[in-house]
Design a protein that fits this description.
Layout: H1 3-6, H2 48-107, E1 109-110, E2 150-158, E3 169-178, E4 183-189, E5 194-196, E6 202-204, H3 207-225, E7 231-236, H4 237-246, E8 250-254, H5 256-268, E9 286-287, E10 293-299, H6 301-308, H7 321-340, H8 344-354, E11 359-360, H9 364-372, H10 374-378, E12 381-387, E13 397-404, E14 407-414, H11 417-429
Parallel strand pairs: 1-11, 2-7, 4-12
Antiparallel strand pairs: 2-3, 3-4, 5-6, 7-11, 8-10, 9-10, 13-14
Helix pairs in contact: 2-9, 4-6, 5-6
Length: 437
């Protein structure tokens, strides 16, 4: 030992802290210090009182030790209980996810339109369902507009009657799950909009599905509207009826002429033995918030389909294609609102039942993620609009008559596509330039 180590400093008035503020010293609590018996030094005799004090002190120490052990045991029991509870929750969650995953794997009608699509997760829409942008007048030439927190699913209502492989698309509704703004957004692309169809002539948007199915419809929407379509889902007429019936029907407010239209189509198409199945005159009609006389009517799947397809018929019911898209979005909104009132198991059962009725390129893993978050999404506000909006006639669009393949067609002609795309981006993404890497 050096001399410096043998010296005792008694002159320093206070200790000097050599540690910085962000340093921590850990002391070894297990280190034991033993007293040394010095040779040649006689031990002091212990008297009776001293012995009693030692015994009492020993008892107190033992009691403290026992109390400490008891506290430690209680803490361990609590920690063990918490650990078991958490483990049980994780195990149950894992089982639920596995059940939902294999349920969708077995039930969904999966049909890819691009094998190169990556897996999607909620809030991650980085996948692109586009091919090389075909160049044409008024088509979009930039990068498709997207946002990782907005999932865009194109719902296609297909007219596949009379044993057709593919008919026109009566319905094209963009359903956007906006996790950023906590909204479910419905946007109807008007079927008569005059658009460029890749590889075909410029014609009505509805023709894209009959020309090339879901893939060409998705490419057409992206090419003209500039929005990235992340996934698609097809529901044909029979599937729509089946879905409504699986939900137990639909309670909806209808006008007298809307009820009569359903009865008329049902009877005319030999789907009922009577002209007045619902009997429009048997209801009591009262003004709704818009002052329109309506009554609450319960529809089955077949009747709900006729309502969703109603764009008016002379002498029976007024309406046009704009009114029809509004009816379609209203039906979807009512279905969502009905599910809002259901518990998780009921929602899962509904999804299980309607799964085979939908054709989609949503993968089982993606559907599992969406299904496990469905209760949260159902609480989002629902907003609804058509593209273009009827109120914007002469500003966003005009009606024109064009000769297409020798046939005179009345179409919706967009006046300024660039300005129109910006409006759609603001509605879907709430951002006029939503490109996110």
């Amino acid at each position: 030992m050096s001399e410096d180590r043998n010296k005792i400093d008694t002159g320093s008035p206070e200790k000097i802290n050599t540690l910085s503020d962000d340093e921590v010293v850990f002391y070894d609590s297990k280190k034991k210090y033993q007293s040394l018996e010095m040779d040649g030094v006689q031990k002091k005799k212990t008297t009776a009182p001293a012995v009693n004090r030692q015994v009492n002190t020993g008892k107190q120490k033992n009691q403290n030790k026992e109390s400490g052990k008891s506290n430690i045991s209680k803490k361990r029991l609590i920690l063990n209980a918490v650990s078991v509870s958490l483990s049980s929750i994780f195990i149950l969650s894992g089982i639920v996810l596995l059940v939902v995953y294999y349920m969708f794997t077995a039930r969904i009608n999966y049909q890819s339109i691009d094998d190169g699509l990556p897996e999607l997760s909620v809030g991650d829409t980085s996948g692109v369902v586009s091919k090389t942008q075909e160049q044409s007048t008024n088509t979009y030439e930039g990068e498709l507009m997207s946002d990782r927190q907005v999932l865009n699913v194109l719902l296609i209502g297909a007219d596949t009657r009379y044993n057709q492989d593919r008919g026109n698309s009566d319905t094209m509704i963009l359903i956007s799950i906006d996790t950023k703004h906590k909204k479910l957004k419905l946007l109807s692309f008007m079927r008569d909009t005059y658009v460029s169809i890749p590889g075909y002539e410029t014609t009505k948007l509805t023709h894209s599905f009959s020309y090339g199915g879901a893939e060409l419809t998705v490419r057409t929407v992206q090419l003209n509207y500039g929005i990235q379509i992340d996934r698609y889902a097809i529901v044909d007429f029979n599937s729509f009826k089946g879905i409504i019936d699986k939900l137990g029907g639909l309670d909806i407010e209808l006008t007298q002429e809307e009820v009569d239209y359903i009865d008329w189509q049902t009877w005319k198409n030999h789907q009922a033995d009577t002209r007045h199945e619902l009997d429009a005159y048997s209801y009591t009609y009262t003004p709704n918030s818009d002052g329109v006389e309506v009554a609450k009517v319960h529809l089955n799947g077949r009747q709900a389909l006729w309502h969703a397809r109603n764009r008016g018929e002379e002498g029976i019911c007024s309406g046009d294609d704009y009114v029809r898209t509004e009816r379609q979005r209203n039906v979807i909104t009512l279905m969502i609102n009905d599910l809002k009132k259901s518990d998780f198991s009921t929602i899962m059962n509904v999804i299980y039942e309607i799964g085979p009725m939908i054709t989609t390129n949503l993968k089982a893993s993606e559907l599992t993620t969406l299904a496990t978050n469905v209760v949260k999404y159902l609480q989002y506000d629902i907003v609804s609009q058509s593209a273009p909006d009827l109120n914007m006639i002469s500003q966003d669009f005009v009606y024109e008559n064009y000769i297409i393949n020798g046939e005179k067609l009345n179409v919706i002609d967009i006046i300024d596509w660039d300005a129109f795309r910006e409006k759609i981006a603001i509605y879907v993404f709430e951002d006029s330039n939503p490109l996110k890497p």
